[in-house]
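User: Could you check the structure of this?
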Amino acid sequence: MSLPRVHTLVRDHPGLNPFLRHLDIPPHAPVYWHPNGHLHRYAENGEAQHIPITTSTLLNWIVRHDPDELWSFWRHHLRGQRVLIEHTSINPVHPLHLGSMRGTVIGSGLARLFRSGGAQVQTRYFVNDLGRQLHILQRAAGTARWDNAPTDLRYDEIVGVLYAFANMTLGRRAGDLARLGAEHPWLGKVVDLHRPLPAAASIPELVRAMVAAAVTDMNHIGTRIDVFDYETDLATQPDAVLALAEQGDLVRVNGTTCLRLPGGLVPVQRRDGSLLYFSRDIANTIRRRPETWTAMLHVIGSDQNLLQTALHHAVPHACLEHISFGQVTRAGRRYSARQNRLTTIPDLLREGGPQRVHEYSLALALHRRTRPIDIAHLDTARPLRTVLAASHAGGRVGVDRGAHPDLLRRLMITLLGTPSVLARDIDRRTVHGTARHLLLLSRHYTAATHTGPVPDELGEWFRRTHTRLLDLLGVPPHATESSSSTTEFTKVSA
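Assistant: Sure, the predicted structure tokens are below.
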């Protein structure tokens, strides 16, 4: 049999790998695996060392130890850290879509990684229930005839259409309105298409229903939110803006007070003295008591780089980190709530059920978080199919000998290096390495089983590690559980 040649050296963490600790390698010494089984490391005097490790040595160690030992050192690796992670936080004017879902995948994955390493983690969702976008939506939703709304669409999907309608009406975009009406024939029965929008009416239950819809969608990929912060609960005073003068340069542009940074201007206060979103973000950061956290991670798109830099500048004592991710497009076009150009979780559920959601979730996780993604060119089905196929892989029928030793060795090296991959993802604030490791582990195991039976003990090591990685990425082991795509939410009346 001809085996594929692999020349890549794989870095490992001796302090997290129980096999390497068994060899008495210093826990913080860099160690690299060569696919032929040799360990490469450098002694304190700088001398290179090559330690031969045979397949039988690895296998003998594995069959004598329980798979749970793989995690014995990782469980305490992050103990003592208190981490706050804010992610998703979509405005309550449209459903969760694939663009914002990328932040959910990264944010919830990081939360699970930190927790698995022993850190104390709290996830947050910041609800913007004071902003201009909600005000625009309220002008359309306040007088909507909800009884005429279609029953085959979720409430948040209907709200998303109303929000686009309100924007198009205010912008007098007749062509867009005609397109929206053609795509949603029911719209004319719910709102008056050719009349000016009425004044905005406060609808608190609308915000609650939209947040509940987002939570339902996030549950499909195992996401848990611990605390919801509402803008309306913030006690923000104009004096807070004056305090910014001590941190940076304030200028006035057409009456608006702005914080001047090297990257541009950030508006903080209107001419009439009212505060803008950035100022409320400052208040929210301070209310979270930043001095009590080891790190505060904001998982948000890279288009918010300037605002996040300004926030860090305004609250320098907070351990703020902007975990930016690249834009998600479809066939080169941005997702747009104002245009109602979205691919939502209900869309995916109607297309292929919960498994379709998990296909996209894993596909998004496999890409480096800063890299832009075009959904039209994203390989979605194959990665999850590869991962799940490994769960059912068996030995080749009619083969008397076991699986090929070289393939077994690669499998065992990959298994034992799992905690070090998680540690690198924590350091890099990403889930990319974990997702790729899951795919690589699945391929190694499937390739080994194609050449013959894998020892039972090694098979158990694989299954338990594989299941844990799936859980860290929010993917059920079979990813085929039934789930309703028509979750009911209370309809809102003015």
